[in-house]
Amino acid sequence: MASTTGRAEASPPVDWEDARSRAYAAGREGALPAVERPLAETDGHTLAEPLTPRTDLPAFPTSSVDGWAVRGAGPWRVVGRVLAGTAPGPLTEDGTTVEIATGAMVPVGTSAVLRVEESRRTSRGLVDGVPRPAPEWRHPGEEASAGEELLPAGTPVDPALIGLAASCGHDTLRVRRQPRAALLVFGDELLTAGPPGDGRVRDALGPAVPAWLHRYGCQVAPADVVGPVADTLAAHVDALRTALTHADLVCTTGGTMHGPVDHLHPALAELGAEYVVNTVAVRPGFPMLLARLVGTDGRIRYVAGLPGNPQSAIVALVSLVAPLLAGLIGRPLPVLPHSTLAEPIAGRGDHTHLALVRLDRVAGTAHPVRHVGSAMLRGLAGADGFAVIRPGTSGVAGDRVPVVPLPLLPGERTW
């Protein structure tokens, strides 16, 4: 790997909102290429170009009801039947009708469609009744015109969009390639199985972070989760270099400070990384980072350094990784929804405070949860997102504050 600026250099903590913007801009710089995918394989991807219909929708006049397509005044003589999926001939004589099914093409020459439940048969076998004044069929282009932009590039693909694309006549979609991510777990003190004890703690991030990344639209193969990586500089450099050969994004856990076994900063310097963000003025999660490296192929890769404390690591994910990935896959930087605080939340001085909250979506309120220490995950498991308490302020009950939602599955709509 080669860097555009050489060795990584430390910098003062970045304001949380600025850090989020920098991460998004870095992702836009390295936006992933567009690929063509069959509709069934696009859920969770992102449109690389606007979705437009190949024909008018509907493409032909379509009956909205079961009944009779009639011409002229009644009663009408039955001259045929039209089912969905067939192209009928025209009605050429007044006083004639064809039986028609919902969704069937309305014959040329039809003056009205009479609902079957509002019709009757005469003693002579004719059809009689009074059609409603409003047409009982959908007109061509009523939903959309051919070539009209229905959804812009950058829209997440979900089942509703896939169905719409199929109705528009598409068999494939051009979408952004999904990022491939890897996770390196740092820390000799970590256990990967069984209960903690004897000075060692259970690794909670190795199993959890890939699932969070999946919800942000990343592909994370089991083989791309590595660790614990030995607490040596050589091991850190080797693990990073290997992961960067195939991953667009490498997340690491732990080692973001400057202690005796914190080797991430020296390893990034060894690889010639450039910091996008080096520490953020946010609590919890302060010692987080995002770095950029340019490969010999000219493609940009990224390293996101997540703190070792579990809740702090998730704060780093929502603060840096989420906006980075939005840029990579061509989505807009998400606009944060707002909610009303149901209880006070303390500020953190000059730092932004991201406080775990549970949302009452009916009342539109945010309720702080308990067990929210940076090393705890109990509060996170019952939360919906983080309330944003800006630097130099405290949250007062009744305040409207931004909320960073926790991610759902790829393509799912939030709020």
UniProtKB/TrEMBL annotation:
Keywords for the protein's UniProt record, in alphabetical order: Magnesium, Metal-binding, Molybdenum, Molybdenum cofactor biosynthesis, Transferase
One record GO biological process: Mo-molybdopterin cofactor biosynthetic process
GO CC field: cytosol
Pathway the protein acts in: Cofactor biosynthesis; molybdopterin biosynthesis
Reaction catalyzed: adenylyl-molybdopterin + molybdate = Mo-molybdopterin + AMP + H(+)
SMART domains: MoCF_biosynth
Pfam families: MoCF_biosynth (PF00994), MoeA_C (PF03454), MoeA_N (PF03453)
The UniProt record lists the keyword Coiled coil: no
Record carries keyword Magnesium: yes
InterPro entries assigned to the protein according to its UniProt record, in alphabetical order: MoaB/Mog-like_dom_sf (IPR036425), MoaB/Mog_dom (IPR001453), MoeA-like (IPR038987), MoeA_C_domain_IV (IPR005111), MoeA_C_domain_IV_sf (IPR036688), MoeA_linker/N (IPR005110), MoeA_linker/N_sf (IPR036135)
Signal peptide, first to last residue: none
Location of the MoaB/Mog domain: 182-327
Enzyme class per UniProt: transferase
GO MF term (any one): metal ion binding
EC number: 2.10.1.1
Role description: Catalyzes the insertion of molybdate into adenylated molybdopterin with the concomitant release of AMP.
Family membership noted in the UniProt record: Belongs to the MoeA family.
Protein name per the record: Molybdopterin molybdenumtransferase
Organism: Micromonospora radicis
